[in-house]
Amino acid sequence: MSATVLDGTAVSHSLLDATAARAAAFAASSGRTPTLATVLVGDDPASRTYVKMKRSRCAKVGIGSRAVELPASTTTEQLVAAISALSADPTVDGILLQHPVPAHVDERAAFEAIAPGKDVDGVTMHSFAAMAFGEPGFHSCTPGGILRLLDAYDLPLTGRRAVVIGRSPILGKPVGMLLLARDATVTYCHSRTADLAEAVREADVVVAAVGRPELVRGEWVKPGAVVVDAGYNPGNVGDVEHAAAAERAGHITPVPGGVGPMTIAVLLEQTVRAAEAGR
């Protein structure tokens, strides 16, 4: 058996087309474009590349972008002040703080300075609570993108055993909440889980998001399972041993081209939704 590829690039194009149409409609009715502010602290090359890519994608769908670049010496207080100013600015609809920030900065304090109505990256405690309780709000972009990708392929979640490998507050934990809201039975695992292989073998859905190259071995995968590889490591290597897993899985995401494009598409869609809600 060879798994069906969950093509995030193709699915994201449909979402981006719809987002572009909504952005144009908003601009026509309000007289301004939806705007995403990106905040970059320091000069990490990878972070700078990610921000540049997100701003380029904004332009392609008719979303304005405002770049706020701060030196690596920026304190927590200075960063919180900058984000608070963006939160109070009526011409800014969404705020993205590129992470990680320098080690001396309290990242959680910075995230919490983002107004809930502008948290289009879904990183605040307010957004997490909304995901956990099924209330209106913005999803963390990667988890939200994963659910949309599964929906695009009409993959059922009700009653399925789902294993989430990873416990980060913006990926592992929220994707588990979103799966639980779809009536999946969710087990959280991580790099220190005893007998991780056995947990994976019982899973109908596996979401790997721990940041360790090929941690999930192909032989662990249950035949016919859905495998979502949300990891990205140097050399275009995910958290799953892809070739071996694809021989057993029913559906699998590629790395790259799976989860990544969906993450950006959800970010932009949520920015337009924030603009619509705030007008």
From TrEMBL:
Report the GO molecular function annotations.
methenyltetrahydrofolate cyclohydrolase activity; methylenetetrahydrofolate dehydrogenase (NADP+) activity
Task: Give the GO cellular component terms, alphabetically.
Answer: cytosol
Q: Which residues are involved in binding NADP(+)?
A: G166, R167, S168
Q: Do you know which SUPFAM superfamilies this protein is assigned to?
A: Aminoacid dehydrogenase-like, N-terminal domain, NAD(P)-binding Rossmann-fold domains
Could you tell me what this protein does? Catalyzes the oxidation of 5,10-methylenetetrahydrofolate to 5,10-methenyltetrahydrofolate and then the hydrolysis of 5,10-methenyltetrahydrofolate to 10-formyltetrahydrofolate.
Which family is this protein grouped under? Belongs to the tetrahydrofolate dehydrogenase/cyclohydrolase family.
**What do we know about how this protein assembles, alone or with others?**
Homodimer.
Question: Protein name, please?
Answer: Bifunctional protein FolD
Q: Which organism is it from?
A: Saccharothrix espanaensis (strain ATCC 51144 / DSM 44229 / JCM 9112 / NBRC 15066 / NRRL 15764)
Query: What does the record give as the organism's lineage?
Result: Bacteria, Bacillati, Actinomycetota, Actinomycetes, Pseudonocardiales
